[in-house]
């Protein structure tokens, strides 16, 4: 109560783009749970210029600077405010958060438990029911059309058999479907009228139904553990525990055994049942699969994310999600709503960073160590622009463990062997390469082939491994990335932990590199992507290194997406190249001889990747695995996309739980753990080094 005093004072309030920031006199009314503001202190006795209800609001310090913070009301209205210094901001934020918490909790305390009230699903309504008072012709059951399902009353047995667990799972699935329908019905109610989506009784009903389903799932898991302990000693080593989770073909993805035929869930779409029970044993092997590039076709998908779509309509859902988060909170285990997803997996996003394969294979064309380092830096900086799909920041699918993605690119040898143009003999410009229109018809002999494979090797922490190689040019790149995301107020930060290694076998050089952090800014308005942080590239053999800084935009002035860097020879500490510009626009390279070169990234040609058709992909390849989610998002059916996404995530959780209970380690398919990193099982440096000694002996 000592912290519940009313406070007042001047703050700067952001009004609009025209008038910008203006001083206003703010008053925190703790008793009423209101934040009010006036033109100045002298007008305090007049009607406030603006008022925000703090119950259910989100108070967030901004990551833009140490003075700014935002107040997001449950109604969707937002105040962007700035204090004179960090101490004053902390004072206001603390008092506002205390007031908000007090009035939010008061809503629940002032309403008696649902079971003691007449408005419930169990009752058919009465004259005193709030639902009946507002709409006498309807009660809660008829309004939401919620049916009741009773478990079959059969003969009790001392130990529940596996088929009985199947029945329980079936009934729980029906209950989960009914609960989702209930939530959807409540959220579809109008914002005003007799019954609204913000009605306190309905909010309590939503929370209670969700808690009930969580409790039932916990109880079902206890039953699974009980039977696991009873049956563990009697199962053969290779047996499939099919009754743990009837929706999942555990033997395939979890134990690499034979497929089991599980009962179909007739109340779910066929596509959802396929996601929850993949029955294709011939393709579900953990043995590495050699992908034939001739089976791959040029990709025709072009899912640009330039439309806010459902994000604009679901702002209240985002506000509710933000209210559950704390600053600095790790978002790895937070399930984000489906409507903020872009239509590709994170593994495919890594492949899209390779969309300029002609520049990639041209690295090894450099005649000196200096030129090769500069070429690698140039290629590195051109990769991020195409890796982003459109201007709107959306999140790629979180890959499930064991998920893979394969693709390749074909580069005509006439373009890969020579440079597109020459501005100077030492530093040819990165001009767009015009590929022949009949590239698709060219044979593999006419083109260099760059092959790519990615695999999700770990779930917690989420680690991806990816590898690309061009055998003809004797070069390959291997990388592993752990994405760690944090909530930063009005933005989300993603740290890319890991390391990449580029090997130029023809020159015996290895280049280590890291990746910048990524930020999703303005998540309540129009979200956009920003890169930030320092990246280092090193070649121990030649002594050349590069330091690249991705600059985040300062609050006042400055440009977006700015990047600066330099390449130097470590032994002499001589800078041989400097770069500046924007990583998604124009880059300017300045060399030690005084020459400069501009690269317009928007005009660089993009080589489309080649991907196998869906019917030839394995069930754990990204596009086939997520195809129903992607199709639903393209059709704008968020509910169906959410259902498919939830089925995949539920399967992954159950498989992970069973591996923990049976103490079974996960076996990766293409990548092997080496120290703190992950390495492709058959990297080019192993196969080439095995051949080279034989060639040397014959000379």
UniProtKB/TrEMBL annotation:
Summary of subunit composition and partner proteins: Heterodimer with OSBPL9.
Disordered: annotated span: 104-137, 414-436
Keywords: Acetylation, Coiled coil, Endosome, Golgi apparatus, Lipid transport, Lipid-binding, Membrane, Phosphoprotein, Transport
Catalytic activity: a 1,2-diacyl-sn-glycero-3-phospho-(1D-myo-inositol 4-phosphate)(out) + a 1,2-diacyl-sn-glycero-3-phospho-L-serine(in) = a 1,2-diacyl-sn-glycero-3-phospho-(1D-myo-inositol 4-phosphate)(in) + a 1,2-diacyl-sn-glycero-3-phospho-L-serine(out)
Record has Lipoprotein as a keyword: no
Localisation per UniProt entry: Golgi apparatus, trans-Golgi network membrane; Late endosome membrane
Family named by the database record: Belongs to the OSBP family.
Source organism of the structure: Buceros rhinoceros silvestris
Main location: Golgi
GO BP annotation list: lipid transport
CDD domains for this protein: PH_ORP10_ORP11
Positions of the PH domain: 4-101
InterPro entries, sorted: OSBP_sf, Oxysterol-bd, Oxysterol-bd_CS, PH-like_dom_sf, PH_domain
Gene Ontology cellular component terms for the protein in this record: cytosol; Golgi apparatus; late endosome membrane
Coiled-coil annotated residue ranges, if any: 638-665
A GO MF label: sterol binding
Stretches with biased composition (Low complexity): 116-129
Functional summary from the UniProt entry: Plays a role in regulating ADIPOQ and FABP4 levels in differentiating adipocytes and is also involved in regulation of adipocyte triglyceride storage. Weakly binds 25-hydroxycholesterol. Interacts with OSBPL9 to function as lipid transfer proteins.
Name of the featured protein: Oxysterol-binding protein
Domain of life assignment: Eukaryota
């Amino acid at each position: 109560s000592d912290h519940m005093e009313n406070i007042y004072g001047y703050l700067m309030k952001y009004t609009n783009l025209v008038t910008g920031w203006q001083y206003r006199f703010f008053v925190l009314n703790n008793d009423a749970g209101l934040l009010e503001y006036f033109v100045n202190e002298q007008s305090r006795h007049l009607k406030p210029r603006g008022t925000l209800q703090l119950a259910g609001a989100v108070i967030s310090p901004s990551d833009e600077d140490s003075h700014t913070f935002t107040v997001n009301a449950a109604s969707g209205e937002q105040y962007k405010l700035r204090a004179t210094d960090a101490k004053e901001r902390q004072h206001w934020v603390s008092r506002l958060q205390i007031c908000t918490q007090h009035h939010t909790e008061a809503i629940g305390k002032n309403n008696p438990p649902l079971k003691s009230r007449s408005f419930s699903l169990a009752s058919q309504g009465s004259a005193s029911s709030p639902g009946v008072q507002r709409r006498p012709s309807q009660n809660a059951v008829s309004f939401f059309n919620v049916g009741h399902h009773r478990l079959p009353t059969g003969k009790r047995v001392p130990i529940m058999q596996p088929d009985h667990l199947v029945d329980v799972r079936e009934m729980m699935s029906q209950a989960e479907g009914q609960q989702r329908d209930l939530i959807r019905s409540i959220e579809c109610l109008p914002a005003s009228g007799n019954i609204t989506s913000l009605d306190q009784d309905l909010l309590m009903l939503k929370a209670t139904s969700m808690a009930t389903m969580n409790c039932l799932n916990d109880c079902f898991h206890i039953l699974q553990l009980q039977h696991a302990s009873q049956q563990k000693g009697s199962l053969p080593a290779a047996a499939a525990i099919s009754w743990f989770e009837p929706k999942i073909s555990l033997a395939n993805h979890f134990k690499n055994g034979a497929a089991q035929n599980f009962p179909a869930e007739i109340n779910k779409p066929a596509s959802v049942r396929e996601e929850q029970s993949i029955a294709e044993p011939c393709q579900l092997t953990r043995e590495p699969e050699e992908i034939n590039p001739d089976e791959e076709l040029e990709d025709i998908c072009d899912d640009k994310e330039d439309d806010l779509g459902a994000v604009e309509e679901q702002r209240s859902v985002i506000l509710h999600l933000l209210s559950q988060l704390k600053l600095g909170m790790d978002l790895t285990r937070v399930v984000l709503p489906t409507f903020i997803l872009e239509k590709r997996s994170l593994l495919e996003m890594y492949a899209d960073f390779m969309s300029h394969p002609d520049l990639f294979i041209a690295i090894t064309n450099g005649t000196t160590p200096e030129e090769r380092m500069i070429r690698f830096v140039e290629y590195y900086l051109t990769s991020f622009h195409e890796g982003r799909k459109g201007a709107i920041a959306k999140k790629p699918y979180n890959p499930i463990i064991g998920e893979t993605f394969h693709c390749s690119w074909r580069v005509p040898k006439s373009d890969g062997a020579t440079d597109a143009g020459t501005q100077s003999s030492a530093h040819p410009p990165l001009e767009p390469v015009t590929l022949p229109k009949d590239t698709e018809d060219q044979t593999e002999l006419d083109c260099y082939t760059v092959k790519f494979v990615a695999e999700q090797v770990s779930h917690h922490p989420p680690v991806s491994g990816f590898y690309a190689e061009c055998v003809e040019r004797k070069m390959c790149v291997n990388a592993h990335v752990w994405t760690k995301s944090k909530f930063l107020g009005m933005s989300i930060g993603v740290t890319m932990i890991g390391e990449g290694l580029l090997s130029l076998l023809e020159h015996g050089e290895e280049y280590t590199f890291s990746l910048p952090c990524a930020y999703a800014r303005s998540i309540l308005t129009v979200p956009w992507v920003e890169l930030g942080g320092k990246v280092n590239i090193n070649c121990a053999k030649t002594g050349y290194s590069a330091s690249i800084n991705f600059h985040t935009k300062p609050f006042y002035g400055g440009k977006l997406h700015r990047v600066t860097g330099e390449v130097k020879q470590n032994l002499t500490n001589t800078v041989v190249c400097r770069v500046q510009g924007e990583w998604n626009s124009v880059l300017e390279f300045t060399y030690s001889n005084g020459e400069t070169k501009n690269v317009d990234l928007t005009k660089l040609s993009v080589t489309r990747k080649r991907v196998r058709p869906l019917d030839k992909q394995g069930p754990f390849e990204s596009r086939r695995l997520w195809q129903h989610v992607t199709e639903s998002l393209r059709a704008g059916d968020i509910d169906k996309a959410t259902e498919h996404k939830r089925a995949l995530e539920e399967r992954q959780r159950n498989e992970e739980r069973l591996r923990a209970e049976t103490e079974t380690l996960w076996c990766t398919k293409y990548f092997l753990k080496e120290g703190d990193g992950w390495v492709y099982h058959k990297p080019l440096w192993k196969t080439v080094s095995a051949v080279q000694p034989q060639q040397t002996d014959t000379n």
